[in-house]
Amino acid sequence: MFLSLSVICLTVAVLLAQVNKMTAEPIADARAMKLQNAIREVVPAFDNDPVAEAYLMPDGSGDSLLVYPAKRGDELVGFALNSYSDNGFSGTIRIMVGFDMEHKIVNYAVLQHAETPGLGSKMTEWFRESSKPEQSVVGRDLSQGKLSVSRDGGDVDAITASTITSRAFMEAVNRAYSAYSNSREEAYTGATVSTDKEEQKPTVEGGDNDE
Q: Where is 98: in which H helix or E strand?
């Protein structure tokens, strides 16, 4: 019996190793494609490879964010930043935020969250609804001040019944802007930045009941 169980366990282990080997590359390719698409969605049109040119930049809170410079020819047209907040209703929210060279938000993409479907999950579209400028962050000039929800004295309408999620989203955007400001300054001064890159986290969908 012991010998039989050993053979079965060994066989299963070998099979699992082979399956993992066969799927590792496709999974990595899918993640890379998702990252490229997110960058393309949030910055002006570019013709470089932002992922290959990515670098880390301090975000002003003791951490660093991955910055993806978007260029057309030799001209910088914007930056995409992989930002986050750990204060979502159900944990970490990770977003890609894009800025042009005039401090304005071009767009954003939600990369990861575990907020409640139908409540906090609405952030994927809520903050870029063009027909409702009071809740959209697209086009806002953050050099005029950080974003906050109206309940906290700001001018962005929070997601209905999801103030916690909305605050976390604003935190992630403001964190991205801090790193953007540093990147923009470095771009004009020609200073050196770190090129060590963090591992990209996969997208997670899921659950919250704010308030």
A: strand 91-99
Instruction: Report the Cα 207 to chain-centroid distance in Å.
Output: 19
Q: Tell me the C-alpha distance between 173 and 169, whole Å.
A: 6
Distance CA 103, CA 66 (A): 18
* Residue environment code for 129-147, b if the CB has 16+ CB neighbours within 10 A, otherwise e: eeeeeebbbbebebeeeeb
For residue 68, what is the DSSP state? E
Each residue's pLDDT tens digit, 10-26: 887 777 777 676 666 66
Q: Is the dihedral of CA 179, 182, 184, 186 positive or negative?
A: negative
Q: Output the CA–CA distances (angstroms, integers) from residue 51 to 45, 47, 69, 164, 170, in the order listed.
A: 15, 12, 8, 31, 25
pLDDT averaged over every residue in the chain? 87
| Interatomic CA distance for residues 49 and 108, integer angstroms | 19
Note the Cα 142 to chain centre separation in Å.
18
Q: Which pLDDT tens digit goes with each residue over 108-163?
A: 999 999 999 999 999 999 999 999 999 999 999 999 999 999 999 999 999 999 99
